[in-house]
Amino acid sequence: MMTTASVSVLVACMLIIGTAFLFAQNVSAFMAKIEQQNEIVAFIDEKVPEEEYQSLKARIEALDSVAEIRFVTKDQALLDYRAQLGEDGAYLDAFSGEENPLRNSFVITISDLDNFKKVSETVSGMEEIDHVRDTQDIVNVLLSLRNVVQILGIWIMIILGVVSLFIISNTIKIAMHNRRHEISIMKYIGATNRFIRWPFVLEGLFIGILSAAVCFGLQWYIYTYVMGRLFAALNFVSLVPFSQLYPGIAAIFVGIGVIVGGFGSAASIRKYLDA
Amino acid sequence: MMTTASVSVLVACMLIIGTAFLFAQNVSAFMAKIEQQNEIVAFIDEKVPEEEYQSLKARIEALDSVAEIRFVTKDQALLDYRAQLGEDGAYLDAFSGEENPLRNSFVITISDLDNFKKVSETVSGMEEIDHVRDTQDIVNVLLSLRNVVQILGIWIMIILGVVSLFIISNTIKIAMHNRRHEISIMKYIGATNRFIRWPFVLEGLFIGILSAAVCFGLQWYIYTYVMGRLFAALNFVSLVPFSQLYPGIAAIFVGIGVIVGGFGSAASIRKYLDA
Amino acid sequence: MIVFDDVYKKYPNGTNALNGVSFKIDDGEFVFVVGHSGAGKSTIIKMLMHEDKPTYGEINVNGFDINKMRKRKIPFLRRTMGVVFQDFRLIETMTVFENVAFPLRVVGTSRRVIRRRVPYVLGIVRLSHKAKNYPKELSGGEQQRAALARALVNNPRIIIADEPTGNVDPVMAKEIMELLSEINKMGTTVIVVTHDKDLVNTFNKRVITLEDGKVISDQTGGYIIHEEF
Amino acid sequence: MIVFDDVYKKYPNGTNALNGVSFKIDDGEFVFVVGHSGAGKSTIIKMLMHEDKPTYGEINVNGFDINKMRKRKIPFLRRTMGVVFQDFRLIETMTVFENVAFPLRVVGTSRRVIRRRVPYVLGIVRLSHKAKNYPKELSGGEQQRAALARALVNNPRIIIADEPTGNVDPVMAKEIMELLSEINKMGTTVIVVTHDKDLVNTFNKRVITLEDGKVISDQTGGYIIHEEF
Ligand SMILES: Nc1ncnc2c1ncn2[C@@H]1O[C@H](COP(=O)(O)OP(=O)(O)OP(=O)(O)O)[C@@H](O)[C@H]1O
Ligand SMILES: Nc1ncnc2c1ncn2[C@@H]1O[C@H](COP(=O)(O)OP(=O)(O)OP(=O)(O)O)[C@@H](O)[C@H]1O
Ligand SMILES: [Mg+2]
Ligand SMILES: [Mg+2]
């Protein structure tokens, strides 16, 4: 009976930590996707001959964190702009062909927003590049968003982790309190502390590992079926598949199970051994 | 001793729920701020006389969810565009004054992103408006972000809440198990279940309310000092001040304390009363 | 009045503790119950107070039919009897005073009466000086006397004492038995389970002798135990 | 050998349980300890096994100096003695067999030996049929005998029995005492705390009489207890 209750508490705490872990993993996966929403448009100086475009492109592509680079001719740019203005962009027709005031450009996407500014400046500083236009405003919003989410995520992990371990240690204490008579009798009969301790530690380990196994199954089910279905309905972001995350989850659970079950009971039995 | 352990577990669980609550509150405050990052530029038809601008602005302003509306002359728009192009925008000088191909416009910010599309279409459909340009792409990203974060937030609240209550109920079970001898002796002496129950329920209530008080203080401290300092360093978003949130937090804690402490012990003592 | 009619008790683990026990104890009687260790004496007390139900047979205690009574009536059955348990069953978290006061509190006795009655009873069992101590801080005999005080405090209609003198010296044992005899003279039914041959022989009361869950003798005076098992 | 030299014990709550107790028990002796309830008999046993330390005075047990010995040596002191506790102290979560086997397991006895030795000892105390039962499923006297079996199983140098016959009938009490006497004849020191006047008088051994935490008599034969308290 008491084992059931202990396992329940342990499973619950692991579930909290596991959920926080999965949450953090998904948030960072999601943020990675969000990071794609950026672009630097680098306008090529008119003096650069077209033959050099290829090597220029290669040089930009070689920069740190450049995820994608796409060449856009000035004609295409004008068409795009016209399309954006709709019917009323007809007046732009006057600028087509040789009259086109726009320039050929590269549209660059950055993989790591932290390097966005650096890349933008590097590209801007290239001789062949006339000037750049970037979405620094949006990038700034995304950057702060990411920082906030990450810091919150880490703190939530830490708080939940600490709190869970605290809960477990107190639960073990209460459970051990149930055994105080048993322990004191063993001592009266001449058992050494080591002799008394190891069955408790073994039991703790067993409970810990059992809890880890139960929790792993539960976490898998909730994640794949409950959350998975929910997100499928959302139709925007997909969850990171469990198969990619389970080594981490398994390591966390078994780690907690072993440490808490084994060391936890060893630590909390001490009080009754010393008595 | 056991009271300390019980209070500790209860406090820890409340802390989890409280943190989740504060997290959700802050996320929604943050999302509200993020929602400001949107705009619809409505270009005014050239045939509309300037005298009507004021009434047009008022009509747009009266639409649902319009947070802000700002008038931008076509001259200003040209200047802005020139500034954006930098030095190389000089060729635009040719279009200044009467030659300006751009139009006067209203820049509209929406308070509730869900209505973004509707407002954009309504404005676009107005006779006086030539066409609109909006940041639908960014808005879409923000919208999904918000939905994901909200759904995640709610689910995290629910999971943590359920798990915490589960932990508490199991802890009470274990703690009550410690008292089984006491309870059975009381029954042997002719005490009715009601007579035995109420001191336990009172004790449970006391533990619950004590935990609520401790947790409230702890939560306040962590939130204001630990998290507050952290976010101050972040320098981007500020936390919702605790003074705005504490009624909710207090209600949650006292609610949990009373329900869990009182009903929880009443429920878990039952098993030993029936025995 | 207590009536046992052909009572059997088989514990879940298969032990047949009672094998057809019948006897009748009238109000105001004083009865010794003797028998080997494991003969079923404590089991009879368990049946009397509805700690457990008989497997077969009828039991009637102070008008309560043990088999048919509703669960919620059990506390009221138990209030008609004061029991000294073989293992004392004092509440660890209460002082001696609180333990002895408990049966009074259960029936809603006023504090004023409790403050008068409890010290009086503790005085009778010579435990006044230990009123504020917890059971753990008592010697074996002191715990036994605290349990006795608790059984007496409520002036119950029946007093049942399971081995009430096992942990006290012969002089105090005799005192306790004389006390029970006094109480019996004032009309209370007294049932004493004991192994103390001397006491049984001295007091010359009705003696029910059990062996292997059966009544093998029910007569006045004298301790009979077969030497062979 | 056991030496008590002017031992005082004051419990944290202020009770003076021992007030200058001195005696010496040689290896192989058989000693009864008698005295009123609360005289300090069980306290002496607590001191002997280092369950608690004396407030003042020297105690030496089997070569261990109780005041100066290191904590980690305590288990080894306790293994030299087999104690029948007044409150039995059986482990609730273990069967009778496991309880009795425990002192053997503690010293690393092989399973084979345990499987032979435990049933043998359970047979001596007539509990073979309860080997698989849990303490809760035993009668008072059966629990007492299980505790006795546990004290004997390890062939300790000293056997200390605190009221070992309080819950058994006179015939079995005599049997138990004869058993202890047998064991004593094979060289084991035996200390029996008892209130059973008959037994003390029958066995005619050394009797240490305590009163209010002092030794008031230490002589061979006869149970002396003052009638007045
Ligand atoms: N809860 C139980 N479960 C199983 N068997 C039990 C239980 N309680 C008692 N017994 C068994 O029932 C039989 C009668 O027990 P009981 O306690 O009535 O004996 P007793 O006459 O009081 O003995 P003693 O003088 O030793 O206290 C014994 O064999 C005992 O082992
Ligand atoms: N843990 C304790 N804390 C405080 N006082 C105690 C404690 N244990 C015993 N005492 C007191 O010390 C005195 C001696 O107790 P002890 O248990 O040694 O008596 P005893 O001679 O064994 O009596 P009995 O025959 O009743 O078992 C008693 O007055 C008792 O109340
Ligand atoms: Mg009995
Ligand atoms: Mg004692």
| Order of H and E elements of chain A | HEHEHEHEHHHH
Output the strand order for the largest sheet of chain C: 6-7-8-3-9-10
Number of domains of chain C: 2
Computed CA radius of gyration of chain A, to the nearest angstrom? 30 Å
| Count of discrete domains of chain A | 2
Number of helices of chain C: 7
Shape of chain A: rod-shaped
Largest interface: A-B, 57 and 58 residues
What separation lies between the terminal Cα atoms of chain C? 32 Å
What is the arithmetic mean of pLDDT of chain A? 81
Q: Tell me the quaternary state.
A: heterotetramer
* The level-1 CATH class of the largest domain in chain C: Alpha Beta
Helices, strands, pairings?
The complex is a heterotetramer, with two copies of chain A (275 residues) and two copies of chain C (229 residues).
Chain A: H1 2-34, E1 40-44, H2 53-61, E2 66-72, H3 74-85, E3 105-110, H4 116-124, E4 129-134, H5 136-177, H6 180-188, H7 193-234, H8 242-274
Antiparallel strand pairs in A: 1-3, 1-4, 2-3
Helix pairs in contact in A: 1-5, 1-7, 1-8, 5-8, 7-8
Chain C: E1 2-10, E2 16-25, E3 30-35, H1 41-48, E4 56-61, E5 64-65, H2 74-78, E6 81-84, H3 96-106, H4 111-124, H5 140-152, E7 158-162, H6 170-185, E8 189-193, H7 197-203, E9 206-211, E10 214-220
Parallel strand pairs in C: 3-8, 3-9, 6-7, 7-8
Antiparallel strand pairs in C: 1-2, 1-4, 4-5, 9-10
Helix pairs in contact in C: 3-4, 3-5, 4-5
Textual characterization of the structure:
The complex is a heterotetramer, with two copies of chain A (275 residues) and two copies of chain C (229 residues). Chain A has 275 residues and is an alpha+beta fold. Chain A is built from eight helices and four strands, in the order H-E-H-E-H-E-H-E-H-H-H-H. The longest helix of chain A has 42 residues, at 136-177. Chain C has helices at 41-48, 74-78, 96-106, 111-124, 140-152, 170-185, 197-203, and strands spanning 2-10, 16-25, 30-35, 56-61, 64-65, 81-84, 158-162, 189-193, 206-211, 214-220. In chain C, strands 6-7-8-3-9-10 form a six-stranded mixed sheet, sandwiched between helices. A four-stranded antiparallel sheet of chain C has the order 2-1-4-5, with helices on one face. Chain C starts with a strand and ends in a 9-residue tail after the last strand. The interface between A and B is large, with 57 and 58 residues. The structure holds adenosine-5'-triphosphate (2 copies) and magnesium ion (2 copies). One adenosine-5'-triphosphate sits between chains C (11, 13, 15, 17, 35, 37-43, 86) and D (130, 136-142, 167). One adenosine-5'-triphosphate sits between chains D (11, 13, 15, 17, 35, 37-43, 86) and C (130, 136-142, 167).
